Structures are given as structure tokens and as C-alpha cells.
Amino acid sequence: MPEQPQAELVKLEIIEQPEIVIVGKFFHLGKDDMSPAAFWKQCGEEGVFATLEALSDHIHNPAHIGFMDTNNGLWRGGTSRYLCGMMMKPGVPVPDGFATQTLKPAKVGVGWIKGKKSNFNAILEVKHHFTEKAIVEKGLKLWGSHDWCMEVYTHRATTPDENGDIILDYYIPCE
């Protein structure tokens, strides 16, 4: 019997994302002495998501996100700003100590990356490559004037199905 893939792209959606504001806490990948997993844990312990969820009238999407601003990023041997937070509507009141990043309207490729919750690292390892490849195969240009990507943890990513599988949504701008 052939070995099943550790993670796979099961869907690519192209969406028109309106202007949104990413609000959360950030650190620098490749610079700060912390892993993304440890940072997520710290954000949960500090009540980052509870604080943002309390701003219910300003939420664009209730999913928790990991946003990477890649303008000076790891792709170029530098650091990337990584924000744990949520997508909010423009005009959101920003809590003290929180960072923001406004994203202009953009066409976005959303890859649905499926794998076992018990092997979440396999999903993280392929999320970017699989989504990028699917966007290109669809005949679209990557990035355009936008230089960011985002992990979006919807209910599909947090609640395994009957087989123990989850789906991480991964956003990459395109045109």
C-alpha cells in the first residue's frame, strides 16, 4: 500500500479580500529568541485573543492568525515580523501594547492544507510551497504589490475530523 502524504493541498480558493487591519502581538522570526509555537503559547497565556475577541463589533474574521510581513523577510536572509492576532475591520480601537498592520484590498490565494493534527509540523512545513505552487498553476502571479502571507486558524484547523485531520488555511496575495 502506498504511503499517505503527511500533508496535502485539498483546495485553493481565490478571494477578494477587503482592507483589513491585523491586530496582535509580534516578534521577529530569525531574530527574537523564541519559536512561533512558544510565541503562540505566550499569547494565549497573556490573553491576547480574549482581548481581541472582546472587540466583537470590529472583527472581520473570528479566526486566530499568524501573519508574516516578509518585506525584509526570511526569503531574503533577514527577519520577518510575525504577528499572532486577528483580522479586524478598519477603525478598530487598538488595545495598549498591541501592534497593527493594515492590509489594502487584494486578491488572495487561500490554500487548504490538510494533515493530521498529531503531525501539525508536516502541515507547517509545506503550507507555503503547496499554496504558492497552486496559485502559479492557476496562471496567477504571486505577491504583486503585497509582500506578506498568513496562517488562518479557522474551526477546520482547531477541530479534527473523525480521522484526526485538520485543515489550515494559508493566504498568499496574488494577481
Short recap of the structure:
The protein has an 8-stranded antiparallel sheet.
Provide a count of the helices. 4
The residue fraction in helices comes out at 10-25%
Our measurement of the CA-to-CA distance between the termini, rounded to an integer number of angstroms, reads: 40 Å
Main sheet attributes: strand count, strand direction, barrel closure: 8 strands, antiparallel
Mean pLDDT: 89
Structural class: alpha+beta
Low-confidence stretches: none
String of helices and strands: EEHHEEEEHEHE
From the alpha carbons, calculate the radius of gyration and give it in angstroms: 16 Å
What proportion of the residues form beta strands (DSSP E)? Answer: 35-45%
How is this structure best described in words?
The chain is an alpha+beta fold and about 180 residues long. The protein has 2 domains: about 1-15 and about 105-175, no CATH class; about 20-105. The protein is about 20% helix and about 40% strand. The chain is built from 4 helices and 8 strands. The chain has helices spanning about 35-45, 50-55, 120-135, 155-160; strands at about 5-15, 20-30, 60-70, 80-90, 100-105, 105-115, 150-155, 165-175. The chain has an 8-stranded antiparallel sheet. It is globular, with a radius of gyration of 16 Å. The model has no long low-confidence stretch (mean pLDDT about 90).
